[in-house]
Amino acid sequence: MATIWQSLELLIVKGLPTTILLTLGLLGAGILLGFPIAFAQVYGYRPLRWFCRGYEQLFRGIPALVLILILHSGLARSFNILLPAFTSALIALGLRSSAYQSQIFRGAIQSVSQGQMMAARALGMSKIQAIRYIILPQAFRLSIPPWTNEFSSVLKDTSLASAIGVLELTKQGTLIFTRIQFVMGVKYVLVILILVAFVYLVLTYAGNAALGFLENRLRIPGFEMKGKVER
Amino acid sequence: MKRALLAVFFIGLFAISGLAQTYDVASDTTWPPFEWADAEGNLLGFDLDVMRCIAVLQGYEINIISYDWDIIFDDVGIGRADIGASGATITDARELKVDFSDPYWTSDQAILTRADRDDLNIVTALSRGYTVGAQVETTGAGFIQGLIDTGVSVILREYTLYPLAVLDLINGNIDAVIQDEPASEASAKAEEELTIVGIIKTNENFGFFVQEGDPNGLLPLLNDGVKQLKESGVYDNLVRAYMGTDLTTVEAAWKASIGLLDAGNVVDFAQSLADLANQ
Hints:
The complex is a heterodimer. Chain A contains eight helices and no strands. Chain A is mainly α. Chain A has one domain (2-217): MetI-like fold, CATH 1.10.3720. In chain A, helix 1 packs antiparallel against helix 7 (169-183), helix 3 crosses helix 4 (85-110) and helix 5 packs antiparallel against helix 6 (127-157). The radius of gyration of chain A is 21 Å and the shape is flat. The N and C termini of chain A lie far apart (43 Å). By secondary structure, chain B is α/β, with parallel strands linked by helices. Chain B folds into two domains: 20-104 and 207-277, Periplasmic binding protein-like II (D-Maltodextrin-Binding Protein, domain 2), CATH 3.40.190; 108-203, Periplasmic binding protein-like II (D-Maltodextrin-Binding Protein, domain 2, 3-Layer(aba) Sandwich). Chain B contains eleven helices and twelve strands. In chain B, helix 2 (46-58) packs across helix 8 (218-231) and helix 9 packs parallel to helix 11. The chains are: A mainly alpha, B alpha/beta.
């Protein structure tokens, strides 16, 4: 029992901070890149639209692990670009996440009806103003439910960073079960793996609960798409 | 006043930057007794303590990083980490990527099987079409591949981590595991179900390794460091502490002794570690 607590503490102290930092970095990068790409795909001029579509197709089409290896090992070997492991993981998974998030935002933008844009323009707003004051506030709210999905997968994707040696939750878990196997025996490996899974589960649950709270707080009465079901 | 503060700041900055060079030491810390992480996450083991002692003697700082074995030669080879200390056998293939220090340890390969497999001995385990596990890119894996290439009937299954191979052996998915003797002994000690059926005298030499061409001039420091450790008896004490002793006992001994090394006392550290580990 003492070992379990000690292992959990070790996971939280030595593994969790990196996992959280990487997750926040990825989500931030995803929003910063994803939102402009989504708007460019919907409202941009043709060459820009093509570029964004290419970007999104490219980074949604490559497995995250392959992307990490290309950035970390491939570039280093061929061009002598030596990125630290954390940076490689952040860039590779950030590119992937921004492509996925751009499609979440694009869906949200496109579910605001075209008529609203036309009405705004008819009232004398510029295109930018219409996006800023009419489309964006609605699209932002609409994108929260599908975005919780992306949050969950980004959080768990950070475990791929262990492949290039980033000392996050999963990698810390392997270090712990290595020792446990030698010191206490093989049957404790399962215990450690369940502990690692448990920490991810708690993180995902807490994050989704926070996003659900945000969704409710930002709800505009009369404008809900989901309509809270009263039982 | 302001200027004085500024001066103090810059002198301080200068002092810090001039104090000691720090080198990154890469190690696959899943391989006791050479390198592993204790229950508090402290990294210890024979290789790592040799590294720490040499760092004290040669006046530089080290920062030990847990590395995956399958990328360790690549990453040290291109300079992403400065020194590799990971129970690595000196081989021609690896010499293409990195430069090795003088040999510091000689090892043989051991064949590990489950104790209930009475039908297996060192010959049958490697010749009757059985599956043998090994960590990827190790000399053990190379040995089995060599057998396969000469037409021996044996199947090789490779794992990214050594403990995963042992796990698969216990679970019955493979018939044997080939690995260096000290690590195999640690496994056999930890698990009653496992036994070493034989040793293959490969006489491999372990070396520390650095980037190709040694741009930081580390190899002379490492070679001279090992020599000093051997002359002062520190090396023998580290061997006595780590080889064939119980892991939890060594961990406790290490925790009680490491303060001596932090204070710069290499000889007393090794003496205390060896004594406590063998009580």
